[in-house]
Amino acid sequence: MVYGACFSIAISIALGAFGAHGLRKLTLSEDILRGFQTGVDYQLFHSGAFFVLGLWGARWIDRSSMRVALLFLLVGICLFSGSLYLLTACRIWGWPSAWVGPITPLGGTLLILGWAWLGYALVKGERAN
Q: What is the pTM (predicted TM-score) of this model?
């Protein structure tokens, strides 16, 4: 888990640099650039959470609850950030992109569920102690 988080953080940084330097050179709207940057920000933030949970999560949360929460977060990152990256690619290459839009809120919903599950697991853990 920690190794995956490290790679995801590295990818986030690389994509952020690409967005700031490579995408800025293209004639893309500010809306598209902001969407791409939002994907980078969310991936970086949630990858940091993965890193912290991978190092210390077992101290606060039982393993099965942590797995469920991390699964929600992992799939949420892939769908939320991934759809924003894909939307940008579709706009660059002129591909149809209407089908990508509904994926983003699904990913966001999974991110919310992941955080809610973590909160529940922490509360449940406090009651058990």
A: 0.89
